[in-house]
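Lecture notes, unit on binding sites. The following record was shown on slide 14. It pairs a sequence with flavin-adenine dinucleotide.
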Amino acid sequence: MLRLCGGRLAARLGSLRACLPDPARGRARRISSCIDRSGSDAASLMTSAKRQGDYYILNGSKAFISGGGESDIYVVMCRTGGPGPKGISCLVIEKGTPGLSFGKKEKKVGWNSQPTRAVILEDCAVPVANRIGNEGQGFLIAMKGLNGGRINVASCSLGAAHASIMLARDHLSVRKQFGEPLANNQYLQFKLADMATRLVASRLMIRSAAVALQEEREDAVAFCSMAKLFTTDECFAICNQALQMHGGYGYLKDYAVQQYMRDSRVHQILEDEETEKTG
Ligand SMILES: Cc1cc2nc3c(=O)[nH]c(=O)nc-3n(C[C@H](O)[C@H](O)[C@H](O)COP(=O)(O)OP(=O)(O)OC[C@H]3O[C@@H](n4cnc5c(N)ncnc54)[C@H](O)[C@@H]3O)c2cc1C
């Protein structure tokens, strides 16, 4: 079974399996998807892939790769043609391929169960047979994968926000101030109702986007982008408010709410709906 790190390329698994030298090893194989250190402007990526016979020779690096160094397989966007999105192709690289190496494990604010490293390619020879799609289709593949990736990231935010509301509700019930539980305070009740409303609105946005994607509707890209934008902002705000409701305890690592706040912050950065569509 294949397990995706980041989930960006779930839509391409069918073609990916065909490219893997040993697709059925009977154990989980982890995949990292690698765009480039170009970041938001994905179409400007620099990693080069020069054709030499039956191989591409790759040179370049990819910052911030989820699962980098731990994953078995790297799905790499690289430049086989001229500038712009049409010069980009998609190649599969197995861990252990000479010329593939990794940077140090990054120290992150959150998402600490997910190792993040740079992926470095130095004269890395990859068989032409490991290409997904045709030359020049890489950008299209990456953008298609982004739709599912956005739903994935938005759903992670939703889970963190839901859990944070539960924690805040429980804390307000047990913490007494001014002679009674904080849960009796009408201001905090209004706040909790507001958080719950935003949570449900986020959930509905994600479900609408998932349906649009499943039905392959034309508006799927817009729905996925809107769901990701709305949900990651709203859910981070919910986690942050839940932390606030814990007072000083919310700032202690003994209380789980701080982790939800830290983990959900990165969801606003990943799969950037504003900028990754450019090109
Ligand atoms: C923990 C973590 C895991 C990651 N995992 C992966 C992975 O597995 N694979 C992968 O390929 N990438 C991964 N990334 C990279 C991630 O996709 C990028 O960080 C993200 O796309 C933003 O790019 P950047 O960091 O270069 O920011 P920049 O592009 O430098 O942007 C900085 C800021 O400027 C804004 N900005 C940029 N251009 C514009 C514009 N034209 N108009 C308005 N605002 C703009 C951005 O929105 C952002 O707020 C990961 C990042 C992190 C932090």
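Take-home: Residues 6, 32-35, 39-40, 64-66, 108, 111, 116, 266, 269-270, 272, 274-275 surround flavin-adenine dinucleotide (CB under 6 Å).
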